[in-house]
C-alpha cells in the first residue's frame, strides 16, 4: 500500500471507530471541524491552505497530510503549495523543517497518483 492509501485507510478506519463510540462531544468536535472548512466568506481553497499552514506550524503530520490531500483535490498548484510551505516555515521557524520534508514527500505522492 502506498503512502497516500495507507494514510487515508488508517484515517478512515479510526474515524469509523471514533464515531462508532457515539460520544456526543467528539461528534460535535468533528462536526465543528467539518463546518469550519465549508464554503463561506473565505473560499474553501484558502481555508485549506490556512489549515495546512497552521498544521505545519503546530507540527501535526496527520493534519498536514489531510490538508495536503484536500488541497490536491481542490486543484492547488505546486507553486501555490510551496508558497504555503514557505509561509508555514517563516511563521513556525526551523523546527518546522522536518514536517516540511514529510509534507513535500506526501505532496509528491499525491501528484504521482494522477
Automatic annotation (TrEMBL):
SUPFAM superfamilies: AhpD-like. Residues 26-105 form the Carboxymuconolactone decarboxylase-like domain. Transmembrane segments: none annotated. This is Carboxymuconolactone decarboxylase family protein.
Amino acid at each position: 500500500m502506498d503512502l497516500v492509501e495507507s494514510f487515508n485507510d488508517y484515517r478512515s478506519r479510526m474515524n469509523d471507530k471514533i464515531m462508532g463510540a457515539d460520544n456526543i462531544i467528539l461528534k460535535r468536535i468533528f462536526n465543528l471541524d467539518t463546518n469550519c472548512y465549508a464554503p463561506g466568506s473565505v473560499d474553501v481553497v484558502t481555508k485549506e491552505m490556512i489549515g495546512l499552514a497552521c498544521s505545519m506550524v503546530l507540527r501535526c503530520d496527520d493534519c498536514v497530510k489531510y490538508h495536503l490531500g484536500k488541497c490536491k483535490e481542490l486543484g492547488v498548484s505546486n507553486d501555490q503549495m510551496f508558497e504555503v510551505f514557505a509561509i508555514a516555515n517563516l511563521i513556525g521557524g526551523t523546527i518546522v523543517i522536518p514536517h516540511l520534508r514529510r509534507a513535500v514527500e506526501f505532496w509528491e505522492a499525491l501528484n504521482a497518483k494522477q
